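ok new one. same drill as before - structure tokens go in, u give me an amino acid for every spot. 364 of them this time. try not to just spam alanines like last time pls lmao
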């Protein structure tokens, strides 16, 4: 095995597998800067900036796909295409992991954790599942009923969502393997990351430097957009802008939680589990507050925008279905362990919503 293969094989620097960046000594740093044939060590600042940029894109893609697929007589739930596309892209990117990390480890984390993880959402799936089980549309307590039909609806939702997530992930991997050329086979000018010539940013490669600038500029544009939407009293525009502002925070928390917790147990990714459960609770609580305030209008239109942004932005970035599908398919060994992990993620999330949120539902 060549030295380059050994370096790539030993490089576990991705948030979705919850392994920390590998240390490189001074000699390997120098060699990397000179010939760009081995991956760079991951810069946390660049990675955070990449997650910020790609998560904003992910929020916008999910919101638009949800709006496009929301109409009378829709054959499946409106978020289906967002979940499918996010998982497909994750499989596509994950299959080219070694080639992408060869160019920039931060780019790989940004694409998987930032883009794919934010396009998909676990919290919306759990909220829909809870409403299907209880027969309660948006926490209207007396409208709830428990029938055999509810069990059928909930079972269908679980099978369709998890099944299509895994199938989409596999399809993306298949496309990457059979259709697209591996990045390692591309001409060297497309794989190398030349060092930035500026003395201030000399420690960054070109791709990392671009990711750093994109993240900073993108978040600045989002902040300006929020201000403009507010002064123009544009409620719908403000909801989207605030969602884009909160999305990166959720994605960054998920990234750090994965790094800190996923490595504790290879058969149970605690980081992803915790953020999915907490995010599902926050989404349900936010939705309940929205429903309770619809008639009173006590929180005002700006407060309503913030609550919608918590749902679409923060919890959408905090929770993820694509990473969960990847963990079920590629990280956890054994069907039993995968079943325990999936079952715990769903059941614990539903139980917390039932105990802490549903008692506050609106009686009608």
């Amino acid at each position: 095995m060549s030295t380059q293969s050994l370096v790539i094989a030993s490089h576990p620097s991705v948030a979705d597998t919850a392994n920390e960046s590998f240390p490189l000594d001074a000699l390997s740093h120098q060699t990397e800067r000179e010939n760009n044939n081995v991956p760079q060590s991951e810069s946390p600042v660049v990675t955070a900036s990449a997650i910020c940029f790609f998560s904003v894109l992910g929020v916008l893609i999910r919101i638009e796909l949800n709006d496009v697929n929301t109409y009378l007589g829709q054959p499946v739930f409106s978020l289906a295409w967002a979940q499918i596309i996010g998982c497909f892209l994750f499989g596509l990117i994950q299959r080219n992991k070694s080639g992408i990390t060869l160019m920039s480890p931060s780019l790989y984390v940004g694409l998987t954790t930032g883009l794919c993880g934010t396009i998909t959402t676990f919290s919306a799936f759990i909220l829909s599942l809870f409403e299907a089980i209880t027969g309660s549309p948006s926490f209207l307590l007396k409208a709830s009923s428990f029938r055999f039909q509810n069990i059928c609806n909930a079972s269908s939702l679980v099978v369709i969502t998890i099944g299509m997530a895994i199938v989409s992930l596999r399809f993306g991997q298949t496309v990457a393997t059979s259709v697209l050329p591996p990045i390692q086979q591309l001409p060297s000018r497309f794989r190398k990351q030349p060092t930035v010539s500026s003395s201030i940013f000399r420690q960054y490669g070109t791709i990392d430097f671009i990711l750093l600038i994109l993240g900073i500029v993108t978040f600045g544009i989002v902040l300006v957009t929020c201000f403009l939407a507010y002064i123009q009293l544009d409620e719908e525009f403000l909801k989207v802008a605030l969602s884009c502002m909160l999305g990166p925070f959720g994605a960054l928390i998920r990234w750090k939680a994965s790094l800190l917790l996923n490595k504790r147990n290879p058969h149970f990714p605690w980081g992803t589990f915790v953020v999915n459960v907490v995010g599902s609770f926050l989404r349900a609580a936010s939705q309940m507050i929205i429903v309770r305030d619809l008639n009173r209008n006590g929180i005002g239109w700006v407060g309503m925008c913030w609550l919608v942004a918590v749902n679409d932005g923060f919890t959408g970035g905090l929770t993820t279905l694509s990473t969960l599908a990847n963990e079920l398919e590629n990280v956890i060994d054994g069907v039993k362990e995968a079943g325990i992990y999936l079952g715990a993620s769903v059941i614990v999330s539903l139980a917390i919503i039932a105990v802490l949120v549903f008692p506050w539902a609106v009686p009608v």
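The first helix runs from residue 3 to 9. and btw The radius of gyration is 21 Å.
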